[in-house]
Design a protein that fits this description.
Number of domains: 3
Structural class: alpha/beta
Strand order of the largest sheet: 2-1-3-8-7-6
Number of strands: 17
CATH class of the largest domain: Alpha Beta
Largest sheet: 6 strands, mixed
Distance between the termini: 72 Å
Shape: globular
Strand content: 15-25%
Length: 424
């Protein structure tokens, strides 16, 4: 049996009650797209055995590949294994690997509480006819039912990503021959600009989803279309938007610093530490990132980032001059090779006619060279503003130090229109 379509059942009352957002469907969509599998439907259901049972019965009739996520834990409302057993007319059995993991953790923690251990072992069950898939970070194994085919995963995204490599091996065994597929990130290039400057050929299917700043483009060849047409279109995109095509500008910059024995630091105001948070999410970054400061109040801009009192009075906290002094100040204080700064108005209040909500200045300092500043405007709401500013800082670092071979080329052609600012 070869499959080309998929249906997803997201299980969890917490999603329908609005307590958490469903990010798993997006993950599945992107991963299945790479395999040429189209998601026909995704449903979110409460923790109710009959609801889930009826949904899966409907999905099975379509003959499509099915993914469920959620309901594999130890609590009373974790019902997925029972539903699967009901569908297959079989009984649950213990997965030996998951059973050992659960016992190792809970017997040590609850030596004299066999009742707690027994309840915890619920998450070690799988249907008798199932293949278990290793969960490297959690307790409940993934479940593969090849005869349907159906993949059942826990609800936590980190556990899904842990199991996914093992699931992929099974999915590829039943998936149809995949069409040519490409995923191209375009940082700071919006959908409107892309569509106005690039015509999608008739033989290519294209879709997009948003990056924090820009789009991720999904393209694949339609049926009976050669891969040559897709490769030609991919080349056209990467040539047209070359400075903006990079999987992860921050990761590329970190690797550049590691390779060249360079260090960097950050000074943030309006982003509130988001830059530092994203930087330190990268393993091993401590070799190149010395740290940063959230200089939200003017006192800290002066005392930590060395912004002069005169600059703040004359130009204001949100200004090119302040951004420049923040970047250069933190660079000197931390003795790094590079530094990036951001100061702006996230909103919804605080804007003026001259500096409306969404205004931000980003500074980029280079040791023994100078400091450069650009002004941006992102009136997109407080959280999206912070994400856009952070992404702007990272793409600026990538372009100024990696893509463009010298500073003059970057200043002339790069994103944001940075200019050098001479400090007194």
């Amino acid at each position: 049996m070869k499959i080309s379509n998929a249906r997803i059942c997201v299980i969890g009352s917490e999603i329908l009650n609005g307590f958490i957002s469903d990010t798993n469907t997006r993950f599945f969509a992107e991963e299945l797209f790479k395999l040429g599998i189209t998601i026909k439907e995704s449903r979110a259901l409460r923790d109710n055995e009959d609801d889930v049972f009826q949904c899966l019965k409907e999905f099975i009739k379509t003959g499509d590949f099915i993914i469920t996520c959620g309901g594999l834990g130890p609590t009373q409302d974790d019902l997925t294994v029972d539903v699967l057993c009901r569908l297959l007319n079989t009984k649950p059995v213990m997965d030996p690997i998951a059973e050992r993991k659960v016992k190792a953790i809970f017997q040590k923690r609850y030596t004299n509480r066999p009742d707690i251990i027994e309840k915890a072992l619920k998450q070690a069950r799988i249907p008798q006819k199932a293949i278990s898939l290793k969960n490297r970070v959690g307790l409940a194994s993934g479940i593969w039912l090849p005869e349907i085919p159906l993949l059942s995963l826990p609800g936590f995204p980190i556990e899904i990503k842990s199991i996914w490599p093992f699931a992929l091996k099974e999915i590829k065994n039943v998936s149809s021959q995949k069409p040519a597929v490409k995923i191209i990130p375009l940082w700071s290039i919006g959908e409107s600009r892309f569509m106005s400057e690039i015509k999608v050929p008739d033989e290519i299917e294209a879709g997009v989803h948003a990056l924090p700043l820009g789009i991720r483009l999904f393209i694949k060849s339609k049926k009976n279309t050669s891969e040559k047409a897709l490769l030609k279109f991919e080349k056209e995109i990467k040539t047209k938007f070359a400075p903006f095509v990079v999987d992860d500008p921050l990761k590329a910059f970190v690797e550049f610093c590691q390779k060249n024995n360079k260090t960097f630091s950050t000074a943030e105001s309006c982003t509130g530490g988001l830059m530092a948070s994203k930087i330190t999410a990268n393993s091993g970054v401590s070799t190149v990132y010395k740290g940063g400061a959230v200089t939200y109040h003017n006192d800290l801009k002066q005392n930590i980032a060395n912004v002069s009192e005169n600059t703040l009075k004359k130009y204001g906290a949100v200004s090119a001059q302040t951004a420049a002094e923040m970047a250069m100040g933190i660079l000197k204080k931390t003795n790094t090779d590079y530094a990036i700064s951001a100061t702006g108005i996230a909103g919804p209040s605080g804007g003026t006619k001259e500096k409306p909500v969404g205004t931000v200045f980003i500074g980029l300092a280079k040791k023994n060279e100078g400091v450069y500043v650009s002004k941006f405007n992102y009136p997109v709401g407080r959280e999206r503003f912070r994400e856009a500013v952070t992404a702007s800082a990272f793409i600026s670092l990538y372009q100024s130090l990696i893509f463009y071979k010298n500073t003059n080329d970057w200043l002339e052609k790069g994103f944001g229109g940075f200019v050098e600012l001479k400090l007194s």
